[in-house]
C-alpha cells in the first residue's frame, strides 16, 4: 500500500455521459511500453498465479503444483473434485454481502484525483465498517454453528475453512469467478465511450485482458449512485476474506486446546479448565499482525485513491484475481501452516519475529502519515521545516506542489515499501524454517515492490523532469537506506 490524502469536498456528481475532453488520445491512450514481458509474460503469470493459489490451498502442508495428485495427470478428476456448488456460491455470496454493506452503510463521499479527461469521480468511504461488520458476521456464524443454533451444524463453522478440501473448493470457485469477471470487464470496455487505461490498451487481447482495458469500470446503482468496481474490489471482499481465513485457524486452535472453555469459565467465576494442549503463541502473533495490517488498510481507505492501482492501471485479471483470490488465499497460509505443525517456535524466535513486524508497521505507518500530512498542508507545523525540492513551487501544469525530501522521505524514496515488506516478512518468520512455501509472501512482495518502485520512478521522472533528477541526487536510496 502507498498512501496520500485526497480532497473530501462534497460536490455534485459529474455526469459521466458528458466528457470533459473529446480527444481520442485522452480517452483511448495506447500502450507504449508493455509490462510484465508483454502478452507472453502476462499469459505465463496468469497460469502461475492460478496454479499457486490452487497449490497453497490443496493441503495444509502447501504442496507445489506438480505435487497435487491429479492436477496434471487427470485434470477432469481434479475439476470434478474441486468444482462444487459451495465453492462457487460462497465467494459470490461474500462479494454480494459486501456490495450490500457498501450500499446500506453510511460513508463519507470524496472526490478522486482528476482524470485525464478533467473529471473527478466520487467514492464512498465506508470500508472499515464493511470489513469489520462482515468479520463479526462470520464469527457470529461460527458461534451459531458450534452451538447448533438456527438448525446449523458444527461442521458448517469456521473449522470448515481449515480443511484442505474446503479451501480447494473455495479457491477453485474464486479463480473461476475471476476469469469470468475479467472477461466480462474486457468485453464491456468496448461498449460505448469508455476511458481506457494506457497500460492495458495495446490491441493484444490476452495482454489487455490481464492488465485491464478500462480505467474506471463502474456499475449504476439505485438512486443514481455508482459503484467503482476497481475501488470496491481493492479492499473490501478480498481483504475481509483474508481476515476470516486468518482467524479460522486461531479460533479452531482455541477450541481444540480448551482455551476457549477456560476463558469462559474464568469469566463466569469458575475454576479455569485445564488446557489439553499448549497454545501456539506464534499463531496468534501472525493473526494479530495480519489483522492489524488489514484494519490499517481500510481505516486509511482514502489513501488508495492516489495509488498506481487506481489512477493508472485498468481493472483486469491482474487486479481482479489479485484482490479476490491471491490476497485471501496466499496471504493467510501462514496461520494454516502453523496450525498443522507439531512443534511450536521457541519464545525468543517468535518474539524477534513479532518485533520485526511491529518495526515494519511503525516505519510503514509513520512514513505514510508524514507524507499525507505534507500533501494536505505543505506549510503545516509538522512538516514546514522539512527539506523540499524545489524550494519554489512546481509549474502550474504539475499541480504547484513540492517534493518532500526530508524526514522519512529523506532516507529513501520509498521508505514505506521497506516497512510494508518487513511487516510481511515477520508473518513468514513466525512459521519457522522447515518449509519454503510459507515464505511465498516475502518473495512475491519483494518482487512486487521492486517492480512498482521502478514504475513509479519512471512515471515521476516523466512528470517532474529536472526536479525528480534533483530529488534522486539528494535521496539516492530507492527503498533501503544505504543499501538499495
Protein model, in words:
With 484 residues, this protein is mainly alpha-helical. The protein has helices spanning 24-27, 38-56, 75-82, 85-104, 127-146, 164-188, 205-211, 229-235, 237-257, 259-267, 281-299, 308-311, 317-331, 333-340, 347-376, 415-429, 440-464, 466-474, and strands spanning 108-111, 122-125, 218-220, 226-228, 388-389, 403-404. Its EC number is 1.3.1.70. It is found in: Membrane.
Provide a short characterization of the protein structure:
By secondary structure, this protein is mostly helical. The protein is 55% helix and 4% strand. It has helices at residues 24-27, 38-56, 75-82, 85-104, 127-146, 164-188, 205-211, 229-235, 237-257, 259-267, 281-299, 308-311, 317-331, 333-340, 347-376, 415-429, 440-464, 466-474; strands spanning 108-111, 122-125, 218-220, 226-228, 388-389, 403-404.
Count all strands and give the number. Answer: 6
Chain-averaged pLDDT: 86
Q: Element order, helices and strands?
A: HHHHEEHHHEEHHHHHHHHEEHHH
| Poorly predicted segments | 1-21, 395-399
Strand content: under 5%
**Cα distance, first to last residue?**
19 Å
By secondary-structure content and strand pairing, the structural class works out as mainly alpha
Biggest sheet character: 2 strands, antiparallel
- Rg calc: 23 Å
Write out the strand line-up for the largest beta sheet, numbering strands in chain order. Answer: 1-2
Percent helix among the residues?
Answer: 40-55%
Total number of domains: 2
What does the overall shape look like? Answer: globular
